[in-house]
Amino acid sequence: MALKSGRKRQPSRSRRPQIFKNPKAAFALALIFMDALLVALIIAYVPYTKIDWDAYMSQVTGFLGGERDYTNLKGDTGPLVYPAGFLYIYSAIRFITGGEVYPAQILFGILYIINLSIVIFIYVKTEVLPWWALILLSLSKRVHSIFVLRLFNDCFAMTLLHAALAMLLYQKWHLGLILFSGAVSIKMNVLLYAPPLLLLMLKAMNIYGVISALACAALVQILVGLPFLVSHPIAYISRAFNLGRVFIHFWSVNFKFIPEPVFVSKQFAISLLIAHLGLLAAFAHYKWCRHEGGLFKFLHSKATSALSSSSSSGLKILKEEHIMTTLFAGNFIGIVCARSLHYQFYSCLSEYIKEGKCSM
Fold first, then answer.
1. DSSP secondary-structure letter at 287?
2. CB of 234 closer than 8 Å to CB of 71
3. Cα angle at 293 between 287 and 298, to 5 degrees?
4. Is the pTM of this model over 0.85?
5. Distance CA 338, CA 252 (A)
6. Tens place of pLDDT for every residue, the chain, 360 residues?
7. Quick one: angle between helices 173-184 and 194-204, nearest 10?
8. DSSP 9
9. Rounded distance, CA 318 to CA 329, Å?
10. CA–CA gap between residue 210 and residue 216 (Å, rounded)
11. How far is residue 24's CA from residue 151's CA, in Å, rounded to a whole number?
């Protein structure tokens, strides 16, 4: 009797898209769709809030007119204090919209949905929130206002930052650093993420990988600022990256109870800087490097491995929860120690800042 050739045919299985196998992901898609409708209604029926748009357009007009001296780029709200990436972004917006608010609102509405999608992706992938808590990400009146009613540059900076965080979840450190540097080139407050990000890089890569990633980030800043660095380097660096700028006491959120003479003093600024660095060191030692025996033991081991020829060349995979917890907590520490900030630019969920089971 002849043997039948070939493998036994397996019963067919329904192949649904992977997204429908995860109820939380399906709910996230529905949430994004509903929020898109809400954004459309806001643009159509809620009056635009005139704050910085005219100033942005004035600064962009000077740049497009050939001005490369940052001291001469000004608007209704004062001199330009953002890095050059801001000028490129808003020059493109001016070209697309003709400087008109309504088409710009549509553009920012699309940007809002992109940013919301990235943020929801981060929370879904790290699985630290129940499905219903995702609703909180789209219920913020403040965030909707920032994007589609005020058209602030924070929108582009934070979207690029969140894209960088998403890349870090896939251990794409070099690409993440490039996107992070792009966000910094739009607004400098993104640098609050830099200390915890550097620590994570040291944990994930050897010293040579860290240096090459930092070089990529530095190259982005050089290329973005090149027209200004070539012509008026001191004016550009001093205006776009002014770390010593004294903010108005009226805008303070954390320290409005401090008398204004103390608030604007150099001693108070130094005290806040020491507190900021101290909190970062404490969190790094007792929380973020707990499994390595503390911050100092971890840094010593990295220095030893860098000096030895047996330094590992591969990537060390970090847990997604650990990456996000470290970055969000580090940024929150920076906000707490900020002498002044525009409080309307900040909203957060506390889930990543709570003490949890996250480990390396």
1. I
2. no
3. 95
4. yes
5. 9
6. 444 444 555 544 445 555 456 678 889 999 999 999 999 999 999 999 888 899 999 999 999 999 999 999 988 878 899 999 999 999 999 999 999 999 999 999 999 999 999 999 999 888 887 888 889 888 888 899 999 999 999 999 999 999 999 999 999 999 999 999 999 999 998 999 999 999 999 999 998 899 999 999 999 999 999 999 999 999 999 999 887 676 777 767 778 788 888 888 889 889 999 999 999 999 999 999 999 999 999 998 888 887 775 555 568 899 999 999 999 999 999 988 888 766 555 654 433 444 344 333
7. 170
8. P
9. 16
10. 10
11. 31
Tokens for 216, please give them.
Answer: 């990529």
Helix (H, G, I), strand (E, B) or coil at 74: strand
What's the full length of the chain, in residues?
A: 360
What the block records as the tokens of 109 is 């509405």
3 φ, ψ (degrees, to nearest 5): -80, 140
Token duo for residue 31: 């949430």
SS3 46: coil
